[in-house]
Amino acid sequence: MTDAAHDASHDASHDAAHHRGSHGEDAHRPQPGHPHSGVARALNAVSLAFGRGAVATCVTDLALLTPADHVVDVGCGPGTAARVASRQCRRVTGVDPDPTSLRLARVLDSLRRRRNVQIVEGSAEALPLPDAGATVVWAISSVHHWADPTAGLSEALRVLEPGGRVFLVEQLKDSGARGNRAHGLTDAEVKGVLDQAKAAGFTAVRRETHVAGRRTVAVVRGSRPGAAGRETSPEL
Ligand SMILES: C[S@@+](CC[C@H](N)C(=O)[O-])C[C@H]1O[C@@H](n2cnc3c(N)ncnc32)[C@H](O)[C@@H]1O
Fold first, then answer.
1. Domains defined for the chain, CATH in brackets
2. Ligand 1 pocket, 124 CB below 6 A?
3. 3-state SS of the chain: helix, strand, coil percent to 5?
């Protein structure tokens, strides 16, 4: 993704958050005439569609997907990670509040032969999904956009089946970073997400750092308590 596109990405996502006043669908729509409502959103969605393969592969590998898994990708954008994951699991549901990203995700998915990806409009704070229907929930470069991470994590826990795994993935940034280096989370903010995941009720919560292509990403992972999942290592 280019720096300009990254900036557009950040702006567009924050615009989506800015317009989130309720959990209704219209609350996520860009307002007519807004400077980022047209070309910038489209450019952003396209750049995300073609610049995120390494992170998508990294997260898919970390999740150790099997053909039994149902993945929910919260803040899926144009759906890169959803499509990568769909080759290895039963089903993927991508959720995003941004209509431009949703449209592109659906178009790109329609070009594929497999029919196991569903793209739905919604936000982390009010996932339009039933209780305990997913085995994996992940959010890639999305948590730092959420208006209410506590609500988002509680929703992630709700839609996971007992033993299900969560992966919260963010690019690491330096505190004081500016411009296009300011996207992502600082070390301290990642620790905050880890604490919020524990408070939400996840178990075996831990933090890792991975290099994915040119990016260094922090991953906070954990499990919904209950049945024996695969994320059973003790808390670090
Ligand atoms: C930087 S993009 C990342 C997209 C995708 N996960 C990827 O890695 O290519 C951030 C995404 O988070 C979405 N987003 C913003 N606020 C959100 C919220 N409250 N709930 C879910 N997604 C949100 C944006 O619409 C945008 O598609």
1. 52-223 (3.40.50.150)
2. yes
3. 40, 25, 35
